[in-house]
Design a protein that fits this description.
With 250 residues, the chain is of the alpha+beta class. The chain has twelve helices and seven strands. Helices cover 56% and strands 15% of the residues. The strands form two sheets. A five-stranded mixed sheet has the order 3-4-2-1-5, with helices on both faces. A two-stranded antiparallel ribbon has the order 6-7. Helix 8 packs parallel to helix 11.
Length: 250
Amino acid sequence: MKDKILEKLKEIERTKGVEVLYAVESGSRAWGFASPDSDYDIRFIYKHDLDYYLSLWEQPDVIEFMTEEDLDGSGWDLRKSVKLLAKSNAPLLEWLYSPVVYFENEVFVNQMRALAKDCFSPIACLHHYLGTTKNFMDVCQAEEVKLKSYFYALRTALAGKWIIENNSFPPVDFLELLPIAPLAIQEKVKELMTIKANQDENYLHPKEVLITDFLMETVQFNQENASGLGSGKKMSEELDGVFRGMMKYY
């Protein structure tokens, strides 16, 4: 599948007149709890030629595609990506730390990862994860629940808890997050992961009160501890340097 993904990215470069700098897997296949029919969530950062950035007019800064082979692609322009890094955008940080990398310009990625540590804003990322967890709470309390919903809620709840307890960006791999949960939750989650790995995305699972109660407790914990978190450093000059440096490759 990696070869097909790289072929699609080469096609994007040809048809859109861009250069892909970095491409990774996001979503359940990167997080470690994919179902057999899960899409490939390809996320990438690309750059245009210099004329694009010198235009007076606002230009499109996102490229998206969906193929019959379940390749779900979404890419962000270089300038958009660097500006989002300044805001400690959690989805972008997840791309930078994805365990599944399809392609990378090492110079660019190393610079972005180094600056990501200083730009990291615990409060901004916690609010992102807290909001996402809350979005899944209603469906997680139904009598039958898609396992996908349980795992999305658990991942973001634990990511928020990680930020509070470690003051660092949480691991993208779900199994690296799981040890901060109580042992009973860890055991139940591993049981559910085995089921999810053998069921399609539409499978409905009976409500797990243990999981639901833990989610509610963790949301409350994350909310109560949010006010004590700090924000990231302002890195405008350094990020400008990354952007300008990538332009010199033309």
